[in-house]
Write a structure and sequence with these properties.
The chain is an alpha/beta fold. The protein has three domains: 44 residues, lambda repressor-like DNA-binding domains (434 Repressor (Amino-terminal Domain), Orthogonal Bundle), CATH 1.10.260.40; 123 residues, Response regulator (Rossmann fold); 131 residues, Response regulator (Rossmann fold), CATH 3.40.50.2300. It is built from 13 helices and twelve strands. A six-stranded parallel sheet has the order 2-1-3-4-5-11, with helices on both faces. Helix 12 links the parallel strand 8 and strand 9. Helix 5 crosses helix 13 and helix 11 packs across helix 12. The radius of gyration is 23 Å and the shape is elongated. The N and C termini lie far apart (62 Å). Keywords: DNA-binding, Repressor, Transcription, Transcription regulation.
């Protein structure tokens, strides 16, 4: 059976370097990290996970809580988080809260029991102050959780502005924004702020319609969309706050014999796979999900290495033009 020394000799590095790679301690170049992992695979070397976790007081696991796993945005985010974690030598412990407080509290306790190296939260309900007190890095993505180590967001306001300016440039004069959740304060609300600011700047008629938490939890916006369009038949441009809502808007417009983009031009948000699968394909605001996931894992690693990290980290968005506008 191969030993740590065997791996070091084959890889041409010191035993200390191999140990640092396995334990994610200190700076290791990607080239060295890749070489060590290749040699471990060649020699079929298996680190003693139990001994390592006991010595480090934590496991090589990152806990992740999302409110939905079937939502296209969270599915894409989870996939990118898993890839980013694997590149750093971590495994993920994925939990689906379904927006239920009691489940989230159970998951937090499970993370503590499993001595996770860090936590990525995409749920808005968790009280994480206790985790911070235990020196567990907590990274939030698109959530207003001030007690976290780092809060990662895309530039939602910029996205709202880009979407609205695009619709106006297409000749739209009566805009509808299918926005966030009533009585919920979330970073995505800034999309509506950008929408309103641009409409007022150009003197364009506009209306914002918010969904209920029930609609958000079921992910079924069909009747909500139908009522919003029926309330103002003159609408010629729609900015949907997600590609999921935009896709359902296409379905409702087809049922109502409304042509997209002939009668209504449509812009979504996120740029998930569904935006390329509908007919017409969806013009959307690209949220840099891959980059957000990579930074989340990077900030966990930096925190564990006692390096400085920002409290807030915001990434720019961009417009992706497709056939719905």
């Amino acid at each position: 059976m191969a030993t740590l020394k065997d791996v070091a000799e084959r890889a041409g590095v010191t035993v200390t370097t191999v140990s640092r790679v396995i334990n994610n301690r200190g700076y290791i170049s990607e080239q060295t990290r890749k070489k060590v992992y290749e040699v471990m695979k060649e020699l079929n070397y298996q680190p003693n996970e139990l001994a390592r976790s006991l010595s480090m007081q934590r496991t090589n696991t990152i806990g992740i809580i999302v409110p939905h796993i079937v939502h296209p945005y969270f599915a894409k985010l989870i996939s990118n988080l898993e890839s980013a974690a694997a590149n750093k030598g971590y495994k993920i412990l994925l939990c689906n809260s379904k927006e239920k407080n009691e489940k989230e509290l159970e998951y937090i306790q499970m993370f503590k029991s499993n001595r996770v190296s860090g936590i990525v939260l995409c749920s808005r309900n968790v009280d994480i102050q206790e985790m911070k007190n235990q020196d567990i890095p907590v990274i939030t993505i698109e959530r207003n959780l001030e007690a976290g180590t780092v809060g990662i967001q895309c530039d939602n306001y910029q996205g709202g502005c880009l979407a609205t300016e695009h619709l106006i440039s297409c000749g739209c004069k009566n805009l509808l924004h299918l926005s966030g959740i009533k009585n919920e304060n979330m970073p995505a609300d800034a999309r509506a702020e950008g929408f309103i600011a641009v409409c007022e700047k150009y003197g364009v008629r506009h209306r914002e319609v918010m969904a209920t938490s029930t609609i958000y939890n079921t992910l079924d916006y069909h009747e909500h969309i139908r009522k919003a369009i029926e309330a103002d038949p003159g609408v010629d441009g729609i900015f949907a706050s997600s590609d999921l809502i935009a896709a359902q808007t296409i379905q409702i417009c087809a049922e109502m014999s409304i042509s997209i983009p002939g009668q209504i031009r449509l812009v979504g948000f996120d740029d998930v796979d569904i935006a390329r699968l509908t007919t017409p394909t969806i013009t959307t605001i690209r949220q840099p999900v891959k980059e957000m996931a990579e930074w989340a894992i990077e900030f966990i690693q930096r925190s564990l290495d006692h390096e400085a990290v920002p409290e807030q980290f915001k990434l720019p968005v961009s417009l992706v033009k497709r056939n719905s506008s």
